[in-house]
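Box 3.1 A note on notation
Throughout this textbook, protein chains are presented in two layers. The first layer is the amino acid sequence; the second is a token string describing backbone geometry. Keep the layers aligned when reading.
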Amino acid sequence: MSSTDVILAGADAYNNEFDAEQYLKDCYQLDQDVVGTDSKNWVVKWLTQIHKVFAKGNLKGKKLLELGAGPCIYATISASKHYDEIVTSDYVKGNREQLTKWRNNDHDCFDWSPHIQIVCDLEGNGETAEERAKTLRERIVDVAFCDALKDPMLPSRNGEKYDAIVAFGVIEEVAPDRNSWLQILACIVKYLNPGGVLLLGNSLGSTFYRRGASNNRAFACYKTDRDEVISTLESLGTTILYESMLDLPGDGYFNDRTDKMFVVAQK
């Protein structure tokens, strides 16, 4: 982190500064020839972790919400075989535009087929990326505006509740302080059905990240740790079903996290 960097915080910073197309190119552009061969690739590691959780077979239901998806669909690839309806959402207009392009299979949408193929190969059922993409597109019933710092978080969805809520790389990244962080988690749990599950991907120890931001710009993060995440979820009345550290520390330039944690908690 340079002393000349500008730290950005707040909703307006994301709408004004976050570049969805550049973010996708920087973080998710995979070489078709090497997909599946490098187990240390962070994208492969993350997709594998999500697959393992859904492969257990006990996570299923009617409606799933992905809160703060960014311009990405990777978090719902595995889930699309277990939930009938998927609502994906984000605050940033450019991110929702990317999600809508992919949902509509527009000619200039981002190519998620390598990521989908990774999941299909992990499942081992012979399904092609094209077949799974078709299923996922059919199950995405809405690309909605969300504001994680307000209640309701998705005003257009009329306060509906969900059997599962996914929030990967969003809570620490949008919360300006601890009170806001606690508010987001409490609101997420509120909109889970009884017995519903929350799937979290938490950035631990992170104070900033610069993916999606222009030169000399970085987005502020709320710095948390494993114990705070677990104790907060338990205080909100959820039971921890699964947790794993992913051995994904930051590089000190793009972000300064100590690790990435995956948690599944049931209401």
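The longest strand covers residues 192-204. The two ends are 38 Å apart (CA to CA).
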